[in-house]
Design goal:
mainly alpha; 333 residues; single chain
């Protein structure tokens, strides 16, 4: 965690050796402590659980467009048909598994990301952690999402079935036992592989693009150093960077998202059969609403997560700067 603590020290505008972040009254705990990771996980729970639940109506229509494009022809048409058939209540279908599943995923996504980033940064050392920071962000986020999706997959299976299968159970308490009874444990995890294919590239883009966008915004757009910005101004930068990252996330992960929706909507068939049925055009159905949904989601998630860090006075390192030792080496060449 030394490389991480060095970045935290830069926030004060000068280089200094941190004995422990908890010794500094600016922070409530030390980087790498159980409290630090616990609060990061709590921030992830709030950021993912609340935001995904808030956009359930949009997610429902998106899933229905992917599974049945002949019936739900567009975003506007999908809302119209859904409300006509089931009333406004129909737009809330799947809210419970969404809240539970994505809250659990958020714990893994953000909490494990911080842990893996510190771990990989320690393995690389201060200079290499700076030089290869993008690769480090990608590796840390991929590692975190691998475990986060194991938490998410059972609830995702229930959610998609509720939202896309007419006449099926409409609540979590009915749907989860039904899948277990009819398909066994495999019914909850048959979509895990395509979920990994969707979520791991998505999360790699989400974290790496966010980190690099924040770095670019402070370097080229924000007219003053981060240490001179108020907490509110920093959170605005967080929101903007989150939205930009979300747009790219939606694009790179959309084909796998279509497969997950179609696979979970049916009881039989595998990934190959689903891809053949959808075709290339079908894999990209629903991209428009998903860009809107994921862009907004990602921006809000980063905003909520960073706000939790601010509220609990967790260490929040500024954009990385080249270590002095590396500057001296480059100057000597």
């Amino acid at each position: 965690k030394q490389w991480y603590q060095r970045r935290v020290a830069i926030t004060a505008g000068h280089e200094k050796q941190l004995v422990a972040a908890s010794a500094d009254t600016q922070y409530s705990c030390e980087v790498g402590s159980a409290k630090f990771y616990g609060l990061c996980a709590f921030g992830g729970l709030l950021s993912c659980g609340l935001t995904h639940t808030a956009v359930v109506p949009l997610d429902l229509v998106k899933c229905r467009i992917q599974v049945n494009p002949d019936k739900y022809k567009s975003l506007a048409n999908g809302f119209k048909v859904s409300v006509k058939e089931g009333g406004m209540k129909a737009l809330t279908l799947g809210w419970a598994p969404t809240l539970v599943g994505y809250s659990m995923q958020g714990i893994g996504k953000f909490g494990f990301y911080e842990a893996f980033k510190n771990f990989y940064g320690g393995l690389l050392g201060e200079e290499n952690a700076y030089l290869y920071r993008t690769s480090m962000y990608l590796a840390a986020s991929a590692s975190a999402e691998f475990f986060a999706d194991i938490f998410l997959c059972p609830m995702e299976s229930v959610k998609v079935r509720i939202q896309t299968t007419p006449g099926w159970s409409e609540t979590l308490r009915e749907g989860a036992p039904r899948i277990l009874r009819e398909e066994g444990i495999n019914g909850f995890y048959k979509g895990l592989a395509p979920l990994w294919c969707r979520q791991i590239p998505y999360t790699m883009m989400k974290f790496a693009c966010f980190e690099k966008t924040v770095e670019a915004l402070y370097k080229y757009v924000v007219p003053k150093p981060r240490s001179d910005c108020s907490k509110g101004e920093q959170l605005v930068v967080t929101f903007i960077a989150g939205y930009i990252a979300g747009v790219f996330c939606a694009i790179v992960s959309h084909p796998a998202d279509s497969i997950v929706s179609k696979l979970n909507a049916s009881q039989g068939g595998g990934v190959g059969a689903v891809v053949k049925e959808l075709g290339m055009a079908g894999l990209w159905k629903g991209l428009g609403p998903r860009i809107i949904m994921i862009g907004t989601l990602t921006a809000l998630q980063w905003f909520i997560y960073d706000s939790v860090k601010v509220a609990f006075r967790l260490p929040r390192p500024p954009p990385p700067e080249m270590p002095e030792s590396l500057k001296r080496k480059l100057a000597a060449q």
